[in-house]
Amino acid sequence: MKRAFSILLLSLPLAGCQGWQSALDAQGPSAQALAEMFWIFVAVLGIVWVLTMTALLLALRRRRPADADPLSTDPGTERRMTITVSVAVALTLVTVIALTGLSYAAQKVLFSHKDGALTLLVTGQQWWWKITYENEQPNLVFTTANEIHIPVGKPVLIKLESADVIHSFWVPNLTGKMDAIPGRQNQLQIQADRPGIYRAQCAEFCGLQHAHMGMLVVAEPKEDFERWRNHQVSSAIPPNDPERQRGMEVFLSKPCIMCHQVRGTDAGGKVAPDLTHVGSRRYIGAGTLETTRGNIAAWIIDPHGIKPGVNMPTIQLEPDEVQPLASYLEGLK
Amino acid sequence: MTKAITPHELDAVPEVTRLATGERGGVSGARSEADYSPDPKELRDDQVDGPELTARLAKTWGTQKGLIGALSTVDHKVIGRRYIITALFFLFLGGLSAVAMRLQLARPESSLIGPDLYNQLFTMHGTTMMFLFGVPIGEAFAVYLVPLMVGTRNIAFPRLNAFSYYVYLFGGLMIWLAFMLNIGPDVGWFAYVPLSGPEFSPGKRADIWAQMITFTEVAGISVAISVIVTVFKLRAPGMTLDRIPLFVWAELINSFVIIFAMPAVVTASALLLMDRLVGTHIFNPAEGGDALLYQHLFWFFGHPEVYIIFLPATGWVSAIVVTFARRQAFGYIALVLSLIATGFLSFGLWVHHMFTTGLPQLGASFFTASSMLIAIPNGIQIFCWIATLWDGRPVFRTPLLFVIGFFFIFVAGGLSGIMLASVPLDAQVHDTFFVVAHFHYVLIGGNVFPLIGAIYYWFPKFTGRMMNERLGKWHFGLAFIGFNVAFFPMHITGLMGMPRRVYTYLPEMGWGNLNMISTIGAAVFFGSFLLFLYNIVTSARRGPLAGPNPWNAGTLEWASASPPMPQNFDRIPIVTNREPLWAHRDSLPVAAGLSVENREQIVSTVTAGRADLRESTPEPSIWPFLSAVAITILFVGSMFTPWALVWGTPPLALALIGWFWPKAGTEDER
User: Fold this and answer.
1) Could you tell me the residue range of the domain that residue A41 belongs to?
2) Which pLDDT value is given to residue B323?
């Protein structure tokens, strides 16, 4: 009864495991190896569970007469049970040794880093991700936030740091997680085998808005990636229509610039996400809202209604300032 | 019917044949090394008999009426009962907070509970379940049952035991009161730095969590010491090491684990408090401190903690399996050695909570091996229990049903634990709902199901009345189904990428349906507890009378009345078998010669369980309660000012002086 129920429960959602943030929908070599290992473990341990429960259910038959002395034991039965239990323990030992070996082999493969990788410095902050693309050529170094682009089929080395508390970087479709710990730097290598958009989310409780600390990993062909990178390196293009020009004036005259940077303008704040190309990113608020003009306006008017406790203060704006400001930011493609 | 024996015969224990011929009367004392003669004027238990003996002993050992009497009591059964009820009360509060969280998570983007309250809720849930329920419930059963099961009249250090209860109660009330005042801790039951440090958690919330740890620490270690000494030195004559009931073994090992594990967490929380209150920088990386040091300290306690919760449950399972299989335990030695191995191994696993912190890979893989190795002692236990049932004649009463539920759930949880032991697999599922599912399978399966079985099993002993069997079976059905519907889907939710400790999630994540199923299951599971509560309350009032041994069990607690008299036993039994009541169905051999007018106990030798000394055990006293009050003032005050350590000490010192003031006891007069 219970097992049938479990199978029902299992089959129900497994169809839906094709997720953009799912460990079972592997899109990279590392996640693939992990998923395969997971199913091996499930199969082996599932068999162990079924065998043990079968033994238990068989054990529940009444084998003693009602008037038997509970202290009496039959030497033959005792011996047979001793042998059976010993064999079961030996099998358990063999199983765990085998699984330990399997785990260790996978560990060696998964955590060996390939050379020649693209290198990113990802800094976890309450509650967003700062991303710096490193490069030997200084003109190809740039900073962005909450959206990583990577070339398909290439290893990417992620250096993980934290600016405040412990966070954890996790893109389940690509590989397992790694913590970002203040005072330390951890490293993690990811690789995507197919183009796609994979979601990442902070996996270590980091305070009030731990739930809204998402990020996208966009895997795209090499040419697309390079086009994207060359665009990201550039400064923001000044707006040319009056509404967006007005929006830029609002942006530069308000406290926005204390925290945010828009390269090519006077806004040079570094404590909040770089907005130079915010309009090109798919989400705002670290994976909280899709980037639309309306959502940007809603976010500016009431960030604490959408993401209570977020470090962005509520800025006093005149009603006629909101729309131009949202247009300006949305236009920062 | 009882039989008394002479001191010479005591030396011969355990020789059943000679005891069986022992004659009543003519006994001069339960001592084997007579270094003084008992006071001839003092009434001894071989001089009176029957109801008069019972009444006189009850008067000597009883708890006085009135508030002062209630607060002064040192009776392990009274304290144990309070401990159990308080721990169950906290279980209920922890369950309520879980239900609130499940309601919030039932739908994506639900606005029922905001992040601030949600963070407090899961912190309270974890803290309550681990520190205010999980550890104390095992100790609570030890306080009530261990003295009965080893055949003595009170726990060792009964005042320390009373003191520990009040400290535990005050600590638990403090944190829940803080929660009611909206200053409940919100940094998780693990309170990782730097999030819980002074920079990111201003205010008093994290202090309250850290100080609550201190309360639990003091209480937990006090009980553990009492239990160890009770098991080592107060066993009934003849209870050699291999006649100690498995439940008592489990509690003994558990007490050792508590004593060695808890100092690590109190170090962590004390250092955290110092960082927060007096400006040290032990965990501040900017000043050369280390955030990971905290995690090592915490988990060096935190993993043994899991076994602190599980080990008493193995004792409950052993007791229930043996009684309801109607067969003595198969593989007693193997079971005891497994317990000891579990106790040792539990200290070598802590790093598997830290696999994603970037530790050296070889070191991490060592902990994979050690974590998987724990499957061996646990496997031995499971197989031995199944073998016992196999060769027995199972009686399907509610306690056994819950133990069968335990097997199904705990084994599943143990097996998913093997996945978490693997460094690479853990990298995927760590800190996701998969882990939430895993440890609820282990902890609810491994502790709560056996606990409920244990309550159905020992309820007649505690109250003198049976619980309702029909409601019990309904309760089991609801709990088993509700639990699995709530927690099984979480394995999948976690694999689909849902992290733990999130107060909400986006609709497009696709976790909504699974979370809704979990919430429905949680509601059913919670409902089963309401039924349980109803069964407890009605059965305690109107349940059929139980008699001393309703289950026809074999261990000594069933030789006492239900509920037991203050003295537990009119005469101390002599143990000749692991299951004394099965070996001596009609009459239990007893030792006589203890004082009726004073609180005298037999102190026995550690291994052979040979009666060694008569020792007076402390009278009731109000001082343990006052000491607990004084230490509470000190602990709470020190959250607000370091000067509390100065002005808080004299009252505590006074209370302790009162407690230990030399008394002209009867022993000293001789």
Assistant:
1) 19-45+91-232
2) 96
Taking the alpha carbons at both ends of chain A, their separation in whole angstroms is 57
Please indicate whether, in this complex, the C-beta atoms of B582 and A71 are within 8 angstroms of each other: yes
A211 and A275 fall within a common domain? no
Which chain A residues have a beta carbon less than 8 Å from that of B328? 70-71, 73
Query: Which chain B residues in 472-511 lie under 8 Å from chain A, judged by CB atoms?
Result: 480, 484-485, 488-489, 492, 495-497, 499-506, 509-510
Q: What's the number of domains chain A is made of? A: 2
Structure tokens at B218: 């003091």
Clarify whether residues A167 and A256 are in a common domain. no
Pair A155, A228 in one domain: yes
Question: Does residue A199 carry a pLDDT above 90?
Answer: yes
Considering only CB atoms, which chain A residues are within 8 Å of B377? none
Convert the pLDDT of each residue in A2-52 to its tens digit.
Answer: 445 555 444 444 444 567 899 999 999 999 999 999 999 999 999 999 999
Mean pLDDT along residues B582-592: 88
Pair A183, A287 in one domain: no
B427 touches chain A (CB under 8 A): yes
Of A204, A232, A260, which residue is a domain's last? A232
End-to-end CA distance of chain B: 33
Q: Are residues A164 and A272 in the same domain?
A: no
Across A83-121, b (16+ Cβ under 10 Å) vs e yields eebeebbeebeebbeebbebbbebbeebbeeeeebbebb
pLDDT reading at B84 higher than 50:
yes
Cβ distance A106 to B424 less than 8 Å, yes or no, reads: yes
> Do the Cβ atoms of A98 and A41 come closer than 8 Å?
no
Across A199-208, B41-50, B544-553, B555-564, least confident range: B41-50
pLDDT over 60 (residue A318): yes
What Å distances lie between residue A130 and A136, A146, A178, B86, B498, CA to CA?
A: 20, 7, 16, 47, 22
Q: Same domain for A270 and A214?
A: no
pLDDT digits (tens, 9 = 90+) for B363-377: 888 999 999 999 999
Sequence letter at residue B165: Y
- DSSP result, A212-277: G-EEEEEEE-HHHHHHHHHHHHSPPPPP-SHHHHHHHHHHHHSTHHHH-B-TTSS-B--SS---TT
Is A50 a member of any domain? no
Give domain status of residue A264, yes or no.
Answer: yes
Euclidean distance between CA atoms A189 and A172, whole angstroms: 13
Please report whether residue A250 resides in a domain. yes
Q: What is the mean pLDDT of residues B130-152?
A: 96
Cβ-Cβ contacts under 8 Å, B425 against chain A? 34, 37-38, 41, 103
User: Do A124 and A257 belong to one domain?
Assistant: no
CA distances B623 to A90, B463, B634, Å, are: 54, 28, 16
Residues B190-213: tens digit of each pLDDT: 999 999 999 999 999 999 999 999
Q: What is the pLDDT of residue B9?
A: 44
- Count how many pairs of residues, chain A against chain B, have C-beta atoms within 8 Å: 292
Q: Could you tell me if A215 and A269 lie in one domain?
A: no
Here the CATH number for the domain that contains residue A249 is: 2.60.40.420
**Residue of B383, B505, B586 best to disrupt the A interface, most CBs of A under 10 A:** B383
Residue in chain B lying closest to A178 (CA) = B356
User: Which pLDDT score, from 0 to 100, does residue A111 have?
Assistant: 79
Interface of B with A in 161-220 (CB under 8 A): 187-188, 192, 194-195, 199-200
| Domain presence at residue A122 | yes
Judged by phi (left if over 0) then psi (alpha if -120 to 50, else beta), residue B297 lies in alpha
Domain boundary among the residues A232, A254, A271 is at A232
Q: What is the pLDDT of residue B222?
A: 95
The 3-state DSSP class for residue B289 equals coil
Residue A183 to residue B422, Cβ atoms within 8 A: no
Tokens of B583: 């070996």
**Predicted confidence (pLDDT) at residue B31 exceeds the cutoff of 90:** no
